[in-house]
Amino acid sequence: MMKNLYTLLIAVTIIMGLGACNKETATTQIEVMTKMLANKNWYLDYTIQGNSVKSYVGQTTYFVTYLKNGTTSDSDGLIGSYTVEMVNNKSQIHIQAKTTNGNAIEYVYDIISIGDKKMTISKADTSQSTPAIFYFTSN
Amino acid sequence: MQFVTINLSKSTFLILLSVLLHTQIAAQNLNTKQQDSLYLSRPFAEKVQQIKKSIAKAFVNYKGNHLSLFGALSFNKQLVNDKGINAPVNYMYDEVNENAFKTGYTGGLRIDGIYKDQHLYSISAAINKINTGNYYLNKYSLSPFVDDYTHFKADNNFTTLTIALHYKKLLPLNDMVKYKFYAVAGPSIDYKISRINSDNLVNGAGNRVMISGDLGAEFDNNDYYTIYAHYKLGANLWKSTVPVQLNRFEIGMTIKAKDLF
Fold it and tell me: Which CATH class is domain A38-138?
């Protein structure tokens, strides 16, 4: 009887020890957002800047592809790489690409909300007082 | 034929005698090291024996202690409150929300006994395969584009290890000898042993340990088997940015191990 209790106690301790992995790390949030972003074509549905709203739903629209290997390309011919980062507690997509003419270009989007199907990002526009907000849907 | 039979008997006797003699001789032929070890002190082994004896003394009032195996069907639902998540992630509400109980199963070992000849108890250890509906208490929207989403996607399929301690009260129903009805109550602790995916780890939401309060009724049919129904209300043991409440109904049966093996 006591032997059964000891065995039970030891078995429980071992199993609890084995299952003690999986803690949040500094990169957990980045991993989750990258997983949601990658291996999809994101189609631009709306842009909003200040009071101006533009809809692209039902039209031949701009799209951008992010791949799991860190590369990105879009319908305008830009090809490059991207990383999802946390900078000053802000989630961002940092893109370094080249245009069709071979000119280097670099820009950063702030992530407002990202999911498997809907993504909302913003980009500061130096010529405007308010940032532009882009609404994407994945297929 | 008679000659063969006699010779077979003699051979068998001689073989047995030689085996016996060999054993005796081998036992006397201990080498020096083996003879010394019989007299050497083994502090660790003796300490373990002392601990076992003291534990046995402490448990002298716990009697009966019949080992049983049990299996049960469970119906599970989680209430999820993702108010603490500030990561900018969204999960479509209609895709993750399921305000319903879903079925899982559980199985394990249980020891039923009596303390100081008065207080009935049971201690059990079980593995639970939990399949649960998730009801999300909060809904968010990002006008004009994203409607009805949550910031968190709870695990709806996981495995836990449970240890439960229940106090049993014999109810004054029926003859209380052949057919016994019990009310049971007590705490249990669940430890998630399945892998937690990264969606559940964001912003400190991951939580492996859950503590529950159990309440139920049991029917003992003349010690042949026991049928039981338990309700368990569980919550995270440690603080989490996503407090989860797990509701479980278990309907199961126990059979004594000695009746099975």
Answer: mainly beta
